[in-house]
Amino acid sequence: MMKSPNGILLILCDDLAYGDVGVHGNPWIHTPHIDRIAGEGMRFTRTCSGPVCTPARAALFTGLHPYRTRAIDTYQGRSMLDPRIPILHGILAERGYRTGLFGKWHLGDCAPMRPVDRGFDESLVHAGGGL
Length: 131
Description:
Elements: H1 32-40, H2 53-62, H3 88-94, E1 100-104, E2 122-126
Parallel strand pairs: 1-2
């Protein structure tokens, strides 16, 4: 398979609402770097997020509604993504991309739900959420 020299950089910011960046017209918050990335890259403008971080991540990484992933909340075992469901990063790895996750995962801290179990070549994450 011939690989493009270009790659994919997916940035997911926790608790960042639509109106919290300049590119969406906020006159008080200045986000020139985020605005530039939005102008030069691909933006998802028709998406729906969950009320907290875990379901939003589960939906983005799987393409499924969070209730289909078991990752529906941030505590009491409800933040664990069903390991049988393929995620974007595993699919990309199967197609020759190198993948990494750096920062917050919050979709399961034990095998077989850790990033290293899910197809990431590299990861540096903190356990749990809310840090």
